Amino acid sequence: MATFTLIHGGGGSAWDWHLVGPELQRLGHEAVAVDLPIEDETAGWQAYGDTVHAALGTGHNIVVGHSLGGFTAPLACERASVAKLILLAGMIPGPGELFSDWWTNVRYPGADGQDDDEIFYEDVPEALADEAKRRSRNESSRALGEPWPLASWPDTPTAYLLCRDDRMFPPTWARAHARDRLGVEADEIDGGHYITLSRPHELAARLDAYSRPAL
Q: What pTM was estimated for this model as a whole?
């Protein structure tokens, strides 16, 4: 059994994982979704890391960062025992990098000609998409204006899981991003960027597989 600490993406909340958490519990794990202090203008990366650290268990910890949550997930690995770090359609920061510089530094191709519904909710059931938009929060914390604080990527074994139908971070770009920043080959799963809502059962099964020893 593992304890999964689940980190939402930009503008999101713990609610984004409300369908995945019960699926992980059904598979025998503990699952804790965190609410990052994204609306607190005084909150920097230290506060983000504190939030995740407080949610960690004492046993087999697996930290999952979705999208912008990729900036926060590694921070937990410097302060506690984490068995696995999983970036789900994640942004991979570099030492000292600013959020505003990341897009140019990683040669992000953009998503021209698509609105938010097409980018984020294309495969999400309409009622869930409407609720996600209603719950969206303003990303106004100090963290996004601070250099990313780690001097290097943590030693924690890290996997990158891209979504094959992702319109925010297209698969071709995401594969290159994982290679360039982490030197790893990305794993893949069907679904769009908001896979936590569109395919919670399939995502939980894949996360469960990461918790098991390699054969």
A: 0.96
pLDDT for residue 215: 43
Q: Is residue 215 part of a domain?
A: no
Check which CATH number belongs to the domain holding 182 and give it. Answer: 3.40.50.1820
Helix (H) or strand (E) holding 48: helix 45-55
Measured distance CA(24)–CA(170) in Å, rounded = 27
Tokens of 50: 């504190």
Per-residue pLDDT reduced to its tens digit, 28-40: 999 999 999 999 9
The dihedral built from the CA positions of residue 117, 121, 125 and 131, taken in this order, carries a sign that is negative
Residues in contact with 20: Cβ distance below 8 Å, sequence separation at least 6, in sequence order: 6, 31, 196, 200, 203, 204, 207
